């Protein structure tokens, strides 16, 4: 090549188009997720405004902090499963993949979060099949642990409250059998073969499942505290015969059960509407219908705010880490 001649660009500009297309896809994904999330809020704005007008700032902040803790419990559940399958991710990178991907749950259809996590995980060296396996394992872990938590706490605080939902608790023994490592690995292997994918390099272990289960249980406790903070403001008189600890335990079970009922409805974005209806019904023994509706709607909005906050903070943390590495590299180069 003659000296001074400009380099020839890659054929077709693929090296440039690839990152641009990925960036555009992320923008479209985030726009759709935020748009549908806003639609959930606008649709019930009058009821939400009335409910929030009755909430004090301390209760609102406490509820949001508890939601963030609960969402982090969900992220750690997924991260533990992914690590057990052979792809341990650093905390910051894992948080970004999980929380940004989770915004897809606000888009109608149940596959948007897993598609987002698969694509972002692939950039970090995680095979798509492994990302998909971790995603689809996280939901049953949360569902099974949620039903157990709901059954224990609701039965302990108000035994009759679980009777109308006995059919849902029939899933517990089914999930207990299905979540034996041999069964899980056999199902995953069969599914990957049917999809024409390579089998997982590492099978899921009992230890990995137990670690994921522990994080899921911690998440349910945090979700219950989030709901208890709202109930304390909207029902300041409390329920006769219930101590503050009993109300908190009841809220743990009420939220877990309403979440499980909501997640069973895959066609609704993030269980929108189903979870609120279930929560109002579950709270009926301790709250009148009006306050119960306000509690359910306030809970929904705090969770949406928590999703956005976690996604924003995770993305910011990764950018700052990337900037620090670049600065460090520049310093070395000098």
From TrEMBL:
Keywords: Cell membrane, Membrane, Transmembrane, Transmembrane helix
Transmembrane segments: 24-42, 62-82, 132-154, 166-188, 209-230, 242-261
Record membrane topology: Multi-pass membrane protein
Name of one Pfam family that matches: LPG_synthase_TM
InterPro entries listed in its UniProt record: L-PG_synthase/AglD
Main location: membrane
Cellular localisation: Cell membrane
Protein name: Lysylphosphatidylglycerol synthase transmembrane domain-containing protein
